[in-house]
Amino acid sequence: MAQPPIKTAQSSRPASPAAPENVKLLYDKSNYTLLAISALIVAFGFVLMAGTTDIYSNTKIVIAPIVVLAGFGLGFYALLKKPADKV
Description:
The chain is mostly helical. The chain has helices spanning 29-50, 58-80. The radius of gyration is 26 Å and the shape is elongated. The termini are far apart.
């Protein structure tokens, strides 16, 4: 006994556009800029930690960790900073 062909339902909704017109991002351009700067500061701190062959240098023990912590602090500020509302 032959089975009747199965009908599939056509989608009645229109195709979605390629790019929505009004996209509101979570952060502002200044937030992303600060976040990129903080990543560069953290990377620079790790480069300072790599430094010279002297493992007890002032740069490796004092300055580099302060630079890395400052970079992380700036990154947290960039994430928590409220974006400016444009009216």
